[in-house]
């Protein structure tokens, strides 16, 4: 693939429309790479930004305050991408830490409803609260809405299930949550970047950007409505959560930011340098178009495997002995195996040739 520069530049706060065809030219590889659900690919601009940053660091020119400026631009860019104000976005590096903030803030004896088989970073933090009488009910993802009651404090779920690619029934869950006064926490890690996501419809969301958004690992986001944020304790508060960062480096007093920034965790600076062009690319795309492209490839694979069309970007099927995954790997295709299933993911750098190659490797060509 060609490496034409992305317009606008990564340091430009504005974005313009970028076509799917143009976006594909910003990846140096992608043929046979069916693993965005495991690890995304960097654009040429992310590679260039991180290389330049490393060289500046080596020359002794790295600057903490300039890194802070990068973080704030990325925060604003992500807020724009998911439809919330920047003051509702907190930053960090790990899903489990952000989910842990919510879990640690649950009232004693609260009930939480989770999907069976969800990613452990959205499960373990809540199970770890059992000593306080917190009850966790795990149900099939299709039963989430029907399982909420007036006794449910929180429903926490991934919008797209990691192991299977199944999309949660968002409308039903939100309707049930409103009817039962249940708070909603949604992990959009396996959704943001390939489909439109509106974080404002949830009380809180978490997104790690190293998968479908192609950012370096270590760049994650937490959004919270003001009403939900008021329920949370900033259990990971450090200097970066301070109202004035550079006045928050030492004790003894603590003055945290009045908005979602009070939940910030100190960023791994170089990762955010690489994240800026990645976020800027995806916020300049028509994500409905990206979704249609990815889903068409997923449905084409389902057709070839005699599976029902799923309208998903992630397709998985039973592969307990790993035989199908081994066939894909032997054919030079990067895929993954999860929960006894072979798993492939189609993103904007893929096309019908990737579908045909996978089918041929599986003996269905």
CATH topology of the largest domain: Aspartate Aminotransferase, domain 2
| Nearest-integer average pLDDT | 94
What is the number of helical segments per DSSP (H or I, 4+ residues)? 12
**What share of residues is helical?**
25-40%
User: How much beta, percentage-wise?
Assistant: 5-15%
The CATH architecture name of the largest domain reads: 3-Layer(aba) Sandwich
As residue ranges, the low-confidence spans are 1-14
- Largest sheet strand order: 1-7-6-5-4-2-3
**In whole angstroms, how far apart are the ends?**
25 Å
Describe the overall structure.
The protein is of the alpha/beta class and 365 residues long. The chain folds into two domains: 110 residues, Aspartate Aminotransferase, domain 1 (Alpha-Beta Complex); 217 residues, Aspartate Aminotransferase, domain 2, CATH 3.40.640.10. Helices cover 34% and strands 13% of the residues. It is built from twelve helices and ten strands. The strands form two sheets. A seven-stranded mixed β-sheet has the order 1-7-6-5-4-2-3, with helices on both faces. Helix 3 runs parallel beside helix 9 and helix 10 runs parallel beside helix 12. The two termini are 25 Å apart. The relative contact order is 0.17.
Summarize this structure as a short list of keywords or feature phrases.
three-stranded antiparallel sheet, single chain, Aspartate Aminotransferase, domain 1, alpha/beta, 2 domains, 13% strand, 10 strands, globular, disordered N terminus, Aspartate Aminotransferase, domain 2, 365 residues, seven-stranded mixed sheet
